[in-house]
Amino acid sequence: METLRIDPKKIEELKELVDEDDPDFLIGLLEDYMDNSEENLKAIRYAIQAKDTVTVVTTAHSLKGASSNIGAVNMTELSGQLEHLGRGQTLEGAVELIDQLEGEFVEVKCELEKETARAGKV
Question: 8-14+22-116: what fold?
Fold first, then answer.
């Protein structure tokens, strides 16, 4: 059974918000998410290495919200777990979580790239 990376209902909700004559808006939104997520993941990894719980919390929170908005279910969950660790002033287990999050992002990005290709053909 294939793991659900992106909630299709969320993508449909986003499509409904977008003018059918302007698929570039949805494409831009998804591309921005992918670009920003890559930067956020780098920042979180660096913050974990630096034992900077404040940056882990703020960046994981931002990633969690953005992931929720586009329906990246596991990204939302894993980001929330990292945020929770940081709020508890501990980073025990954070390396494992960021590893999982980065792996999940590879899968999510692949799905979003397919979605942007479809949106461009509308």
Answer: Four Helix Bundle (Hemerythrin (Met), subunit A) (1.20.120)
pTM for the full model? 0.91
CA distance 109 to 33: 9
Q: Which two tokens stand for residue 60?
A: 């994981």
- Amino acid at residue number 7: D
pLDDT tens digits, one per residue of 34-51:
999 999 999 999 999 999
Provide DSSP, 73-118: HHHHHHHHHHHHHHHTT--TTHHHHHHHHHHHHHHHHHHHHHHHHH
Q: Report domain extents, the chain.
A: 8-14+22-116
For the purposes of burial, counting CB atoms within 10 Å of the CB of 23, is it exposed (0-12), middle (13-18) or buried (19 or more)?
Answer: middle
Q: pLDDT by residue (tens digit) across 60-116?
A: 999 999 999 999 999 999 999 999 999 999 999 999 999 999 999 999 999 999 988
Closest CA to 108 of 3, 23, 13, 1: 3
